[in-house]
Amino acid sequence: MELSAGKFWCMRRLADKDGFFKMVAVDQRPGVEALVSERLGLSTAPYEKVGEFKKVLIEELSGGASAMLLDPGYAYPYGHGALDPGKGLLITLEQWACEETSGGRKTFAYPDWSVEKIKRLGADGVKVMLWYRPDASPDVLRHQQDFVEMVGRECRKHDIAFLLEPLVYPLGAEGNTDSYSEDKNKRPEMVIETVEEFRKERYGIDIFKLESPIPAKVIVAPEDDSEEMRQTQAWFDQIDKRLDRPWVMLSAGAGMEPFRRILTYAFRAGASGYLAGRAIWWSSTEAYPDLAGFRAKLREGGLPYVDTIQASLKSYGKPWYEKPAFGGNPKMACAQPDFYAVYPGLDG
Known about the structure:
Blueprint: E1 2-3, H1 5-14, E2 21-26, H2 30-40, H3 47-61, E3 67-70, H4 75-79, E4 88-92, E5 99-101, E6 104-106, H5 115-120, E7 125-131, H6 138-158, E8 161-167, H7 188-198, E9 207-210, H8 227-242, E10 247-249, H9 256-269, E11 273-276, H10 278-281, H11 291-316, E12 331-332, H12 339-342
Parallel strand pairs: 1-12, 2-3, 2-11, 3-4, 4-7, 7-8, 8-9, 9-10
Antiparallel strand pairs: 5-6
Helix pairs in contact: 3-11, 7-8, 8-9, 9-11
């Protein structure tokens, strides 16, 4: 498969020189707002304080990352000056608030925010977190699928990488959109069925950011020589068998050790990296609002943890360009003498 010139460049920018995605998420919103307001004893978190918090994360964690994921409400406008211009940049498209219906959740972009604006500011990728359950009502499924298809179409138009993050969520009264934690009642089949849907070409996904098919709290150590370990590995293997594009793992707020286990299974199966936030830095927030202490905790705990999971990635992971769609030798479309003429503009 050939990649358009823009997408080819974006994929290379988001990965390291070896083709691995080592991406850090700093786009968390309700959870960080709640932490900041609680620690400061305020009813609401001031913009500057949330921005300051995220800027510390950018400064301390971008050095070991291949790319950073920022939100357009706090992290990018406040912390843009702290970004390393040699790293890739992902920007969030979706607003956290969703429409909660009896049949499931509907996702929307931030008001007055778009793929066009994300491309225009110079980002390398558009990230969409999508609430998704294969057993949601038909109208909810149609809305979610149409939304993803629209974003994919816009990403093709503006020639920028599209990363999709589908998340299983509790239906009905158990739901809570103030923050995200893994649905403890999800079934592995839900993750697999979601992959089956969005691997279709009409959606235009370049990178999949996926959750573990097995809840983090019950996942066994991948070093165990047990039938449960082999069954767990088989679920991760099923994800890879269904995807010809690269996929990475999200942490879903898992602790450091559970996420290490998840990553080991995923890398063995063929994942090309991770896009994680809280598993790397949440434990360091115990020092907040002492910013110096927060930085020290990140250096003492967060950075060594990053070294650990990157060593696992190097040992077991698969570079993005080795996925079946690219066969180890990705090619750029229109790579010919009259590239300047055949490479399409915005109007096609």
